[in-house]
Design a protein that fits this description.
heterodimer; A: 3-stranded antiparallel β-sheet; B: alpha+beta; 11-stranded antiparallel β-sheet; 6-stranded antiparallel β-sheet; 12 helices; globular; binds zinc ion
Chain lengths: 95, 431
């Protein structure tokens, strides 16, 4: 069990090098799991996309899987642009 | 397929028990690919149920065998034992009669409401060619829902005081700033069949303080609004207003136009083929409308000469034909725009939030919306374990998923580089 922050009740967040707020970027729920993966979406064209292109999203493993799966299985079909075209980079953080 | 949910022993025991009984099925339902064809490329049972199409028992009955429905001989019978909201198992049955009509039953009693679709809850006709598949999926959905809520109940502390419909609960919610929201989906055809549009609207917005207003559009006169626009009568518009903003409503014309006298499939598409959703929404504070927003609507003053108020309900039944065959304009008192509902099938979504202070009515194309909702549901079924935060995922399971998704992304990237010029496409053109 991680140590808990007395004020917020959330576990202390591990600090990822060079990033100020290493909280998981998943926005369908509050996630306090530690981030291990990154996704950077391409900027532009896709106005329907909620994520701002060009910014790095840091994600815990569970939500990294869900983000890629949603892109491939839901978003791609609706937007028509192939999923891979949306991503400037993706993968584990330590690479 | 169905895997135990962490921390829920009742569920786990069930999965084990099921495996022992599962071999009884003589025929495998859906082995012909019908489940896949109707509900997605690879059928996934709803997340939370250990049951699947394999558990359906199918019997072909010779004419004259016992079992009649509506006075007709039953020629085919599908049965599936599954859980209901009362947490008990029930015998679900679909009797197909000699005319090919399907009759769903629970414990031998006709199922009220019949079979409904998984995406929009629309009623499925007894002679629908996909009725069997949709029935199987409906029983599985019910089982999954019952089990998940049992797990939830087993896991959770007593329900918090703000859960529920009572006045006390609403007050608790207000005090704690917890909002109660609701989403209702319906096909306009079902709404017209079962009740009228205004009954449906009111039934689902009991706390809304600004009344709905409904009109029939009188478009008999050929020149109706015709001079305002060259070819088409109605333009999509956008109107938005905030009480804090003293500039009054902003109205902006959009690119698309359509002709309400001739409802074509492109009614809900922009000129480039993109589907769109029209909506009207209001936020109220007490009886006052403090903000509104809309898209794909028309200003009320433009339509005024062509509006025929639809008689209010109460005891007076609405003339069904009128509503089914005409364009209906829906507005909210205190706002200057009207949402136009075409005759024929389309989808309504009614969203309420903040204990009725926020109300949004959306209108979209039936097929487009069904496809997109189904896609979302498939995603939720396929990735149910990842979406369920009560499930502890094994490292191996995560690694496998990451590997698979990376492969899919790379594969597509190669295909793309090999033979595709970049550029947007609409889904329909891909197949
Ligand atoms: Zn996360
Ligand atoms: Zn896209």
């Amino acid at each position: 069990m991680k140590s808990m922050d007395v004020q917020t009740g959330f576990p202390d967040l591990e600090i990822v090098e060079g990033v100020e707020n290493p909280r998981c970027s998943w926005n369908e729920s509050v996630c306090t799991a530690s981030v291990e993966y990154r996704i950077r979406r391409r900027a532009g064209e896709d106005t329907a996309e909620s994520a701002v292109g060009g910014e790095v999203e840091l994600l815990c493993p569970r939500h990294y899987v869900l983000s890629l799966a949603r892109l491939l299985e839901v978003h791609e079909a609706e937007c028509g642009t192939p999923a891979a075209e949306h991503l400037a980079e993706y993968g584990p953080l330590n690479q | 397929m169905g895997l135990p949910i962490a921390g829920c022993d009742r569920y786990r025991n069930d999965v084990v028990g099921r495996a022992a009984v599962g071999s009884h099925a003589k025929k495998t339902y859906g082995a012909d690919g019908s489940m896949d064809r109707v509900l997605g490329a690879a059928y996934h049972a709803p997340y939370g149920t250990p049951l699947g199409p394999d558990d359906v028992r199918v019997e072909e009955l010779a004419h004259g065998e016992p079992g009649r429905s509506d006075g007709r001989a039953v020629v085919r019978r599908l049965r599936l034992r599954a859980r209901g909201t009362d947490e008990r198992d029930h015998e679900h049955e679909l009797r197909v009669d000699e005319r090919g009509l399907g009759h769903p039953l629970v414990d031998g009693t006709p199922l009220p409401g019949g079979v409904v679709g998984p995406a929009l809850g629309e009623q499925i006709a007894p002679d629908d060619p996909d009725l069997e598949v949709l029935w199987v999926d409906q029983v599985l959905r019910g089982d999954a829902e019952a089990r998940l809520s049992m797990c939830e109940a087993a896991r959770a502390a007593p329900a918090p005081p703000w859960e529920g419909d009572g006045v006390g609960a609403a007050l608790e919610r207000a005090e704690r700033n917890v909002v109660s929201y609701q989403d209702e989906w319906a096909s306009t055809e079902d709404v017209r069949k079962d009740e009228s549009l205004s009954t449906w609207l009111r039934r689902h917005t009991p706390y809304m303080t600004a009344p709905w207003e409904l009109f029939r559009l009188d478009l008999d006169s050929e020149e109706c609004l015709g001079h305002r626009v060259e070819k088409y009568v109605f333009l999509r518009e956008y109107a938005c207003r905030d009480a804090q903003d003293s500039n009054g409503p902003r109205i902006r014309y959009l690119l698309h136009a359509f002709d309400p006298r001739n409802r074509a499939p492109e009614t809900f598409q922009l000129v480039d083929g993109t589907p769109f959703t029209a909506f009207i929404g209001v936020r109220t504070d007490g009886p006052a409308v403090v903000a509104y927003d809309a898209d794909g609507v028309l200003p009320r003053d433009l339509l005024e000469p062509h509006l025929v108020p639809l008689r209010d309900l109460g005891s007076v039944p609405l003339d069904e034909r009128t509503e089914a065959e005409s364009w209906v304009a829906v507005g909210i008192a205190g706002t200057p725009m009207l949402l136009l509902i075409p005759p024929g099938p389309s989808v309504l979504r009614l969203h309420t939030d903040d204990d009725g202070a926020l109300t949004v009515l959306e209108l979209s194309d039936l097929e487009v919306t069904r496809t997109s909702r189904l896609r979302e549901k498939r995603f939720r079924r396929r990735w149910g374990r990842f979406l369920d935060e009560n499930v502890e995922l094994a490292q191996e399971e995560i690694d496998r998923a990451v590997r698979e998704l990376h492969e899919r992304l790379e594969r597509r990237h190669e295909t793309l580089a090999a033979d595709l010029p970049a550029g947007p496409r609409v889904e329909g053109q891909q197949r």
